[in-house]
Amino acid sequence: MMSQNDCAPRSSSSAFSSGSICSLTGTLLLLVWAAGCNGSPPSTAPAGGRVTYNGEPVANAVVVFHPEEGRPATGRTDDQGAFSLSTFKEDDGALVSNHTVTVVVDSPAIDSSEISAQAQTGTTQSPIPTTYANRETSQLTAIVKEGETNDFELELTD
C-alpha cells in the first residue's frame, strides 16, 4: 500500500519518478474503470407473441421472459392476447437466450369482502392456472434468437 509520501515528487535522475508512476497508475485505473462502465448492454432481439388459455385469448396478462442470466423482458397482452416484449427500452425485445416464461393475469377490481374471503382461504381468483405465474412451476420455455421472428404462441391449459 502506498502512503502519501510515495506519490510526492522526489528529486531523482531516473526516467520514472514516483510522481509519474502514481500518475500512470491512476490513469490506468481510470481507463480500466471506464472500459467496464461503457460496455454495451447484452444483445436483444424483437420478440412477442400471443397467449391463449384453452384456445381463448388471454387479455390483460403480464408476460415475463426470464433469461438464464440477465434482465427479464416483460410485456402485457391486449384483448386478443397479443404482446410485445421490452427489456431495456420499449419494444426492444428480449435477451438472446433460453428463457423460462411466466404469465400472470391482472385481476379485475374486487371488493373488500372478496379479498377477505380469499385471504382466509388462501386462494386467489385467477382466470389461468397459477402454476404459470411462478418460474419454478411454469413449464413454458422460449428460445429468443438473433435475426429471427421470435413470435411465440403460448398455449396455456389446465
Describe the structure.
- This protein has 158 residues and is α+β, with helices and mostly antiparallel strands.
- The chain has a single domain, classed as Immunoglobulin-like, CATH 2.60.40.
- Helix content is 19%, strand content 28%.
- It contains two helices and ten strands, in the order αββββββββαββ.
- It has helices spanning 18-37, 112-121; strands spanning 44-45, 48-53, 56-57, 61-67, 73-76, 82-84, 94-95, 97-105, 141-144, 151-156.
- Strands 2, 3, 6 and 10 form a four-stranded mixed β-sheet that branches. A four-stranded antiparallel β-sheet has the order 5-4-8-9, with no helix packed on it. Strands 1-7 form a two-stranded antiparallel sheet.
- Strand 2 and strand 3 form a beta hairpin.
- The longest helix has 20 residues, at 18-37.
- The radius of gyration is 26 Å and the shape is globular.
- Mean pLDDT is 79; it is low at 1-17 and 24-38.
